[in-house]
Amino acid sequence: VIRMSDLDLNEKRVLIREDLNVPIKNGVVTSDARLKAALPTIELALRKGGKVMVMSHLGRPEEGVFDAESSMQPVADYLAKALNAPVRLVAEYLNGVEVARGEVVVFENVRFNKGEGKNNDELAQQLAALCDVFVMDAFGTAHRAQASTHGVAKYAPIACAGPLLTAELDALAAALKNPKRPLVAIVGGSKVSTKLTVLESLSGIVDQLIVGGGIANTFIAANGHNVGKSLCENDLIPEAQRLIAQAKARGGNIPVPTDVVTGTAFSADTVATLKTVDAITSDDMVFDIGPDSIAALTAILKHAGTIVWNGPVGVFEFDQFAAGTKALAEAIADSDAFSIAGGGDTLAAIDKYGVAERISYISTGGGAFLEFLEGKTLPAVAILEERAQNSVK
Ligand code: 3PG
Fold first, then answer.
1. Predicted TM-score (pTM) of this structure
2. Could you list the residue range(s) of the whole structural domain that residue 156 is in?
3. With a cut of 0.85, is the ipTM above it?
């Protein structure tokens, strides 16, 4: 791809697509990780003398109507404070917008535009006409082929990748394409079904695939144990057995918890009981891994060359079931491995245990991070590669 850092942006109209889709409560941004990650790109475009426009989606509003709930105003307010530059939110921009050098124009939510989700050609051309250089920097939305991520890149005079997007892709490539081994992945979360392709793809490349959360329950059941009333997908037990066999066949391993912490209801005050997996009763719900499992998994992480982390291994929002996720977060932080983490719940755990500084790379992607792990091509990156190839021909 062409990189923004290599381009002359002086006096150029520069349209940057960021993923500024952040949680907002009462008009205030409640988690600014994505905004912080986007700032260096915007600042670099300003330093390079560009006339800078920034666009993003926020939430999933209905297209074609304005919805105050999904307005970019709180994001624009945040940027105005964070950037040492005047920031202006513009609602009507499709027919052209004046931008002065040194200021930042933020477009209102791109998902208010009819045709954004379906990657409408006319809308993409309108966006492309606004700029001399289109910068795709929204890694978190790179798995969406939409007018502001994909279509615009088709038609803009120049389409390039911003520094955040390339940093994300470089970090993921370092972890998965040519990793220092042993390569260990942790895939937690509630359901096997939503992560089946990730598990499938990772079990083909990693040395150890640690499963956690509800996902682990299906694997515990696959090993022949009763999991009581736990979240468990019985129809996927054969799939779990196949993954275990497949990993073993290539010299890898899927370690399954041997002891667990159970409760009897999904609630903050349910009593936690430690059990071995063969002692789980019909009334039990598995909410965390036990100390033996923690010890086994932290030993694996200690010797890892590379760690990929997506998803908690227990219900860490309830303190009595947080020990597993906390211990793993700390083991990742303590390890000398190159570590990369991504996904909403994972970031919440990283914040809660204060280990952000000691993880090599924290991705801004949720769905996009998972699709990369699945081995899928991200359409908004593919179009940049296509454009770059055509420009050298
Ligand atoms: C995300 O939060 O994963 C991205 O911003 C994409 O949002 P979407 O799932 O609504 O397309």
1. 0.92
2. 4-164+377-392
3. yes
